[in-house]
Amino acid sequence: MQNNENINEWINWIEEAINKKHIKYYEYENFKNIQEIGSGAFGKVFRASWKKFDHYLALKSFFNLNGITLKEIVNELKLQREVDFHDNIIRFYGITKFESENKIDQTKSYLLVMEYADGGTLRDYLKKNFSRLSWNDKYNLTYQLACSVLCLHDEGIIHRDLHSRNVLVHRNSIKLADFGLSKRIDEASNSQLKLLGMVPYIDPKVLSNSDNLKLNEKSDVYSIGVLLWEISSGKPPFHEETNKISLIYDISQGRREKIIPDTPNDYSNLYTECWNNEPNKRPSIDEVVNRLRIFISNPNIVTIHQQNDISDQTDPIVNENVTPNSTVSSFHGELSNMIHNFTNMNTNELDNTTSINEQINENVSSKNNFNIIVNEIVDLINENASSKNNFDIIINEIVDLIFQKINEGKAEKKSVLDYLCNHNINLKEIYNWLLNNQDTSHYIFILGYFNYYGIGTSANKEKAFNLFINASEQDHILAQYFAGDCYKYGEGITKNENLAFEYHKKVANQGYAIGQFKLGRFYESEICVKKDLKMSAYWYEKAANNGDLVAMHNLGRFYKNGFGVDKNHQKAFELFKKSAEGEYSSGIMMLGYCYDFGIGINIDKQKAVELYQKAANFGHKAAQYNLANMYKKGEGIEKDLDKAIYWYEQSAKQGYQNAQNKLRELKNN
Which residues are annotated as a binding site for ATP? Predict the structure, then answer.
């Protein structure tokens, strides 16, 4: 009864954590196309799509969700947070749960929601793709693998279960998995289920247990050595070996796989050093990474291992200190221990055929163990909440920054990237966080914005458009604005200027300059509406009054030329001046033009040159042309034909026809 109370207390607690959004929760019913893609000693892995998105996620289940497993799930989440930034480590996204249809047993099965790796396990990937892999491809795979393990070791984490079924591949890149659960569940539950199947990857010092050694960093290096061999061969180590018990003994005595013909010597030397029987003779993971880096950067220095060298390096027993009598005695003693250990195993752990619908949580063994679990998860949840609050602040500030820049008529992408850089924010990290926190319109919009510009991911205009539409349906102003732009330019959706007009009109009618300016452009350029300069001036004025620098410039143009309004040079000058004060390059150029020709102000050639120069430095091609004219004529500045030609050339490079004509004229003269 006490155990039932404990497990119910756990369920209530985790439900509360989900309700408070400390852990990202995914509704199970929103997963589509669920397909089993793997099964291990502790559970199954399923691939599933989320809602209408084409993005796949992985669901990781557990056969026996008991106290030990719960505690190690906590450990997995803690370790995940420490290495979450690394590109070659699989990401944890959140939790979902499947509720049993059994009305009597209301136990819920919790599943981890993880990053999906499209290439499957390294073992499967090599089986399918090995014939197409060049040595450069193999070097890159091994380098990524070693870097991921180096990341763990730098954070004080030992993987302790490295093998080709725990290493995944996504888009031809390594993704290390299970570094938390694999580290402790075996040990905590006294499980040795995986020992037989994974013997070739396990540190032989631990197999023989001659010095009561425990798995450590050099044990991971040993496993790396075996994996390097596997990547060079395309096959699992000792895959034809049937007597696994005998294999354990042989490996503990020094037996290793044969070096594959045509393997580069430097590469085979590295992995044979890694699988040395003596841990202190193995290289550190730092050295492994550095040597692999050299292989990648200098592939030509790597020499090839010839086939006739094999016999010198493949003696199955390399421990010269073993005598026949000690061999037999040692083997029988170790075999007896192994049989005893396997006999005492928890038989539930051998059942790997349970379906996702039959997974049932086991009772937590003791109140003390449960309290430890709760305390550890409280710490983790506090960290998660802090992380969420930090990202929430960042996202809100980015949205405000985008709104401010666009509302002023300025390009905003560089400002966003500068903000992220100045705050030391990893682009991929914040992108992945957004990917799994789509519960506010701000988050949805920013994920769309990142996809639109390729921030933290490859640019995907179609995905961006769908996210903009999603957020715009929640009345997000910026999302409506960007959805309008997508329709206007045909980005991520078929071009539809009528719908573009409607989206921008919706923003304009809510009093925002970003939409008001767009309507002014529609009416001026006769885009899907009849040309109407009065309506254009009307919307430019509204946008200008709301701080849009481009609208100020455009309205100044209208007053200068009498487009849709009575000609008024004084108003034109004031509008150009305001636009220039906001550092809008066209506003600066036109203010210089006013001083150059006395529009709304007395002529001041020196002031005109100063303003032309400023706009030219911003890359404004008309300002560059005007500045060249000033140098050519010697107006407002000392005459200098070389500088005139320079600025004509800068303008001409940008396609300014007047500058190109002027250069031809100077050349002919």
Answer: 60
